[in-house]
Amino acid sequence: xxxxxxxxxxxxxxxxxxxxxxxxxxxxxxxxxxxxxxxxxxxxxxxxxxxxxxxxxxxxxxxxxxxxxxxxxxxxxxxxxxxxxxxxxxxxxxxxxxxxxxxxxxxxxxxxxxxxxxxxxxxxxxxxxxxxxxxxxxxxxxxxxxxxxxxxxxxxxxxxxxxxxxxxxxxxxxxxxxxxxxxxxxxxxxxxxxxxxxxxxxxxxxxxxxxxxxxxxxxxxxxxxxxxxxxxxxxxxxxxxxxxxxxxxxxxxxxxxxxxxxxxxxxxxxxxxxxxxxxxxxxxxxxxxxxxxxxxxxxxxxx
Length: 303
What we know:
This protein is of the alpha/beta class. The mean pLDDT is about 95. α1 (about 10-20) crosses α6, α2 runs parallel beside α3 and α7 crosses α9. The strands form four sheets. It has a seven-stranded parallel sheet with strand order 3-2-1-4-5-6-11, sandwiched between helices. A two-stranded parallel sheet has the order 7-10. The chain has a two-stranded parallel sheet with strand order 8-13. About 40% of the residues lie in helices and about 20% in strands. α1 links the parallel β1 (about 1-5) and β2 (about 25-30). The protein has helices at about 10-20, 50-60, 80-105, 140-160, 180-190, 210-220, 240-250, 275-280, 290-300; strands at about 1-5, 25-30, 40-45, 65-70, 110, 160-170, 170, 195-200, 205, 205-210, 225-230, 235-240, 255-260. The chain is globular and about 60 Å long. The protein contains nine helices and 13 strands. The two termini are about 35 Å apart. It has a single domain, classed as Rossmann fold (3-Layer(aba) Sandwich), CATH 3.40.50.
């Protein structure tokens, strides 16, 4: 297949591009800031906020499908122009991709949304969280990713395009963003530093290994299934349990240190993945422990 992948130089993108190229597909990887230096893959730098540049991607090329991973994720504590950039890159960028894909005759688009669109307010949570759960509207990033889903649904219903939206949970693995709790723990363990857990560490997340997410995306490429699907492990893990596992796997000689906090977040969160399992045939292969061990082997290989 001839496949266009936006966000190809990002965390998930690099894994996906590498696997698809290994399988013999022709891949055009779109990136914005980071270069893409994967052998046999065409690399193109495009700002998704410019519809003219997005349209140029499709001119003269016939893609069998598009995987839209590209987007803007605000860094922690970032406040300047966040709402505007989220809407322009994530929401309108998705619209431009869908519009240009439709006009060039692409029938299959895979859009990667995010489980961050789900509300974390405890009174709105019903665990595990299914695709019909409450959507939060107080996060610019979450709102912009949800708007991408709305555009995907509009093109599916009105333009006869096969567009599927995937909502990955907390994706982890070698090369991920350093700002999340899991890579912070891993980095500290590798450096021989103690792991700091704030409060009782009862906040929970659904951690899914990056290769499981990539496999889920690949399953959708030749499918005509549409709609929204959770992609996670379906397993609830507390921050305390995560710290214990990271210590055991990466560095048993360090300690876990509890830090006092006044207003501890004890929100529980994990996904119901039954729809993806039943409809897409998705089944995560990695437990958190096996995923962390794979993560560790990749860290060691890069030394």
